[in-house]
Amino acid sequence: MKYRILLFFCLLWIIVSPFIAEFLIVEKPIAHSDAIVVLSGSATYSERTTQAALLYKNGVSRKIFLTNDGERAGWVESKHKNPAFLELAFEELVSHGVKPEDIEILSPQVNSTLQEAELLARVVEDRQLKSILIVTSAYHTRRVEMIFESKIRNGQMGIISAPTGLQTPSPWFWWLFPMGWKMVIGEYLKMLIFALSLN
To answer: What is the distance between the alpha carbons of residues 13 and 1, in angstroms, rounded to a whole number?
Structure first.
């Protein structure tokens, strides 16, 4: 009997777990934007820049903004240093065909998604941008929507997620990886904290 109950809950988890992850994924594509914004993400910079470069190649925008969280990668022997993830993201974009002059690093340095939203709100207002397209990791998009829509009042905002399976575990298998728990459950906790901060 105990094994049947255990089997039932295991099967239930396998069925439910993809929906837990997929709820976090928001897509708001726009055909053209004044700028593509790649949000900082040390563990997932490659999938984000790859997606941004694809949008750039498809003519969605001729400008890419990078935010800077100041984080550094591990030791890279060819560089003889611990490069900043910002540097790696820039190089990744260029390697995918983005012209260096079309990439702009936004300042100042940011330490959270909220600070990124506040920075982008100022950029949109100061430059009178009509639209921006935010690129981030899949499970980050729901919280990005919540935070950015609370800060950016003017102009159109689109959101595109990088495909899962590259650096982000897929919705079906996220629970098999420590990174998946950090991304999925961590996002729910961060959304709760942000929602409580609004009250």
So the answer is: 19
